[in-house]
UniProtKB/TrEMBL annotation:
UniProt keyword annotations, A-Z: Lipid-binding
Name assigned to this protein: DegV family protein
Domain of life: Bacteria
Gene3D superfamilies: 3.30.1180.10, 3.40.50.10170
Species the sequence originates in: Fictibacillus nanhaiensis
Transmembrane region(s): none
InterPro entries: DegV, DegV_C, DegV_domain_contain
PANTHER family linked to this entry: DEGV DOMAIN-CONTAINING PROTEIN DR_1986-RELATED (PTHR33434), FATTY ACID-BINDING PROTEIN TM_1468 (PTHR33434:SF2)
Keyword Endoplasmic reticulum: no
Phylogenetic lineage: Bacteria, Bacillati, Bacillota, Bacilli, Bacillales
């Protein structure tokens, strides 16, 4: 067994069978509806979450793992591992990174390296899966961190299209006038991560044009014969994600294309119907 444990928070949305196969440990962020708290991926799945949002009307709150949970996890891992590498969602949208750093200083017997992905969802998963691959090959924590930093420097583009402007309005990202005009003009904002936060990239009219714009950005960055990993991410729109993935496989012959999802925590930011595309060259 590797001497380096690999930990991710739940927002990388790596399926359980892959986590088990690759020896990846997950710790959940929380979603709070009224006074009920649910651990993402463990106690609430994506589809159930979107159904609950539809019924409740009000948006839930989200919270990072309690520092006590992180300490407990590290103490457990210290029985079998000398080091751990934890890849967190962006420190610009969650305190998970800071909590993990603090927890690492509180536990003896295991050296914790915390990597701020500065993003979330599948791009975060790209880092986690690479870390697990390197750990299983016998790399130490410092080498893994250096490799992840090199990946970050090379860039992992990711663009998200928001389908439901009402969701952005409820979350305080749009005022009532912007909501009215946006719905009237069928505006579909494209968002991305910049300086660790989710921010607008462009406003495009209609879903079809928004997706075409993301495809155009890919065309500027990826050649048809490039070896590339691509993830299509959806918020309860699997049929659409499958269509997009098939189109990408036809377009990029050497692409490894998979489908992921926006789970509860990131779904709170983006809303049902959102779609995203991210890629990394191999």
């Amino acid at each position: 067994m590797s001497k380096v444990a690999v930990i991710t928070d739940s927002t990388s949305y790596i399926p359980e069978h892959i986590r088990n196969e690759k020896n990846i440990v997950m710790i959940s962020l929380n979603v709070v509806f009224d006074k009920e708290t649910y651990k993402e991926e463990a106690e609430i799945k994506a589809d159930d979450f979107y159904d609950m949002v539809g019924k409740e009307g009000a948006l839930p709150k989200t919270s990072q793992p309690a520092i006590g949970e992180l300490v407990e996890l590290l103490e457990e891992l210290s029985q079998n591992y000398d080091e751990a590498v934890m890849i967190t969602l962006s420190s610009g949208i969650s305190g998970t990174y800071q909590s993990a750093v603090a927890a690492g200083e509180m536990v003896e017997g295991i050296k914790l390296h915390v990597f701020d992905s500065e993003i979330s969802c599948s791009p975060q998963a790209f880092y986690v899966l690479k870390a697990a691959e390197l750990a299983n090959e016998g790399s130490n924590g410092y080498d893994i961190m250096n490799h992840l930093l090199q990946m970050k420097n090379n860039g992992i583009p990711a663009y998200f299209m928001v389908d439901d402007l009402n969701h952005l309005h409820r979350g305080g990202r749009l005022n009532t006038a912007q909501l009215f005009v946006g719905n009237l003009l069928q505006i579909k904002p494209i968002l991305h991560f910049e300086d660790k936060k989710i921010v607008p990239f462009e406003k495009v009219r209609t879903k079809k044009k928004a997706l075409k714009r993301i495809f155009d950005i890919m065309d500027e960055n990826v050649k048809p014969d490039d070896k590339v990993k691509i993830s299509v991410i959806h918020a309860k729109r699997e049929d659409e994600a499958v269509e997009i993935a098939d189109e990408l496989r036809e377009k990029f012959a050497n692409a490894d294309v998979w489908i992921s999802y926006f789970g509860p925590v990131i779904g709170t930011h983006l809303g049902e119907g959102s779609l995203g595309i991210t890629w990394i060259k191999e």
